[in-house]
Amino acid sequence: MHRYLMNQLLTPEQSRRVVDWLHARKLEFYLESNNGLFASENFATLGEPVMQE
Questions:
Q1: Of 32, 31, 52, which is closest to residue 40 (Cα–Cα)?
Q2: What φ, ψ does residue 27 adopt, rounded to 5°?
Q3: CA-CA distance, 5 to 3, in Å (whole number)?
Q4: Cβ pair 24, 32 in contact under 8 A
Q5: Tens digits of residue pLDDT in 2-35
Q6: Coil, helix or strand for 11?
Q7: Picking from 13-22, 32-41, 43-52, which range would have the lowest pLDDT averaged per residue?
């Protein structure tokens, strides 16, 4: 089951600010867009335990 938190077009600058905010807090992330799926550098290893939970 998928739930959307938000579906909104972001500018490249807005996207960069979101990614910078997440990086500054050392949070792993997974972003989905019409252009593809984008995961943070360590998402595959650090995100798996959370997804398994």
A1: 31
A2: -100, 135
A3: 6
A4: no
A5: 787 777 888 999 999 999 999 999 999 988 888 8
A6: coil
A7: 43-52
